[in-house]
């Protein structure tokens, strides 16, 4: 089983930056396309970014494109979300999730979130001055 643990959330200021990290405890992390989701109060869960298992292809939602960067380090079994130019609207619980073994990033993006195989517990990001 893939075990995912997020960290790095907290309080950020508008225009500031935060970096989220998702650590996997098993080597097979490198076989999974990974996604970062967020869910804000009163809103549905939203896919923010996704990255291929190789790290060679990434997807970003329109709301974060140009501000957030997803990356991964398979040797360290970690995926990151660098968040810059933070906005109040970025306030949400952010979760990393694994789609399925060797799925291309397009599959991870198009899949219903309920179809993702594994989820982390989530980390709170609050953007406030």
Task: Describe the secondary-structure layout.
Layout: E1 4-7, E2 10-12, E3 18-24, E4 32-39, E5 46-51, E6 58-60, E7 68-73, E8 78-83, E9 92-101, H1 105-110, E10 118-119, E11 123-127
Parallel strand pairs: 2-11
Antiparallel strand pairs: 1-3, 3-8, 4-5, 4-9, 5-6, 7-8, 9-10, 9-11
Fill in the keyword field for this structure.
129 residues, mainly beta, 7-stranded mixed sheet, 4-stranded antiparallel sheet, 11 strands, globular
User: How does the helix and strand content classify structurally?
Assistant: mainly beta
Instruction: Estimate what percentage of residues fall within beta strands.
Output: over 45%
Give the H and E element order: EEEEEEEEEHEE
Mean pLDDT: 94
- Largest pleated sheet: 7 strands, mixed
Radius of gyration: 13 Å
Percentage of residues in helical conformation: under 10%
- Let me know the number of strands: 11
Low-confidence parts, pLDDT < 50 over ≥5 residues?
none
Report how far apart the termini are: 40 Å
Q: Tell me, what's the shape?
A: globular
Number of helical elements: 1
Can you give a write-up of this model?
By secondary structure, this protein is mainly β. The chain contains 1 helix and 11 strands, in the order βββββββββαββ. Strands 2, 4, 5, 6, 9, 10 and 11 form a 7-stranded mixed beta sheet that branches. Strand 5 and strand 6 form a beta hairpin. The chain is globular.
Summarize the structure.
The protein is mostly beta strands. The chain is 5% helix and 47% strand. The model has no long low-confidence stretch (mean pLDDT 94).
């Amino acid at each position: 089983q893939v075990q995912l643990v997020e960290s790095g959330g907290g309080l950020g200021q508008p225009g500031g930056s935060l970096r989220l990290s998702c650590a996997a405890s098993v080597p097979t992390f490198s076989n999974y396309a990974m996604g970062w989701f967020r869910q804000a109060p009163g809103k549905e869960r939203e896919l923010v970014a996704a990255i291929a298992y190789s790290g060679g292809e990434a997807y970003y939602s329109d709301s974060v494109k140009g501000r957030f960067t997803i990356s991964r380090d398979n040797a360290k079994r970690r995926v990151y979300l660098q968040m810059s130019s933070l906005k109040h609207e970025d306030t949400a619980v952010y979760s990393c999730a694994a789609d399925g073994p060797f799925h291309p990033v397009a599959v991870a993006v198009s899949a219903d979130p309920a179809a993702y195989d594994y989820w982390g517990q989530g980390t709170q990001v609050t953007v406030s001055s």
